[in-house]
Amino acid sequence: MLGGDVLTDKNWNLELNEYIRQGEPDKVEKSNAWKTAIGLQDVDGLKPSKYLIETAKDHIEGKISISEADRLISGYYKERKDRDGVEADTKEADIVSVRIAKLLWEKTFQFSPVELQNIHRRLFEGVLHYAGRIRDYNITKNEWVLKGDTVLYASFDSIRATLDYDFSQEKTFSYKGLNIHEAIRHFAKFTSGIWQIHPFGEGNTRSTAVFIIKYLKTFGFTISNDTFAQNSWYFRNALVRANYNNLRAGIHATSEFLELFFENLLMDTKHDLKNRYMHIDFDGQSAIQSANKSVSKCQNGTLEMSLEELAIINALKINPALTQKQISELVGKSERTIKRCTVEMQEKGLIARENGKRNGKWKILIEA
Question: Where does the Fido domain lie (predicted)?
């Protein structure tokens, strides 16, 4: 067996990218889920084994189901008791990776604190003894990006009430009429808020990421999985900076870094996401300017689109021959809503219909 051999980021990314290059939709979707799942382990410095990659490839190729992949990985580590420190980390990376891939593959979701708690339980059961349990103690964490200082996390006795409040506020929030930039700013605020609560002893960033990915999919977004696969540590540091104030040092909490991450995630923009830009000793204004250099004028124009319009554009990028009914199924909106949106988008010059209704195709008129 290959389980003890740890792979570098470059190794596993190259192997899984091969399925994306082949272009078969089912394999692409599976490969993207695995890339996100494995990439997220980097938030805790964990790397996958060769055995996990081989198991992932068997699932992508249709040789085994995702449930069988889960059983294989769990069974492999139950059989091997001789773990040293490095292998213990690899074990966590492998087990949690397959469980993230499984959750991302499932087409179910409930917007509630219970769902977040359930995600943590499913990811870390058998890995952390407190999987799925709200912490009953206060915590601090030394952060590199803060020169060893810590974010102020929620007090253990306020976690449930604070989660309930944040979720109730988000549930009643209306995205109607917001352009994509305004929506992303709000997504960043909500995400950083529930992360700052830090309801669990460990595994908060990975649980938050899985929850947010599944939540964003309910808006019809096609998620750019490479963003999480390649920038999971940036995601965590951006969450840290969104929740850190040190007024004596002139440092204020800022969600700008997290917004850049979400723009790459949802809009496939090419912001240069560098962790050093977020370090509190780095010139913050230069960081934001540097990160924004690669955004084209056309991409900036897409910021004026609504969430529904962006979801439709993303669906048409994958298949311009989609019917309005097929678009509605993909983005989770009614066919009536899609018909209204596509008419409005044609009037705005965002898309055009070529060759008629029956055998025609959609043409995207902007770079998005």
Answer: 111-263
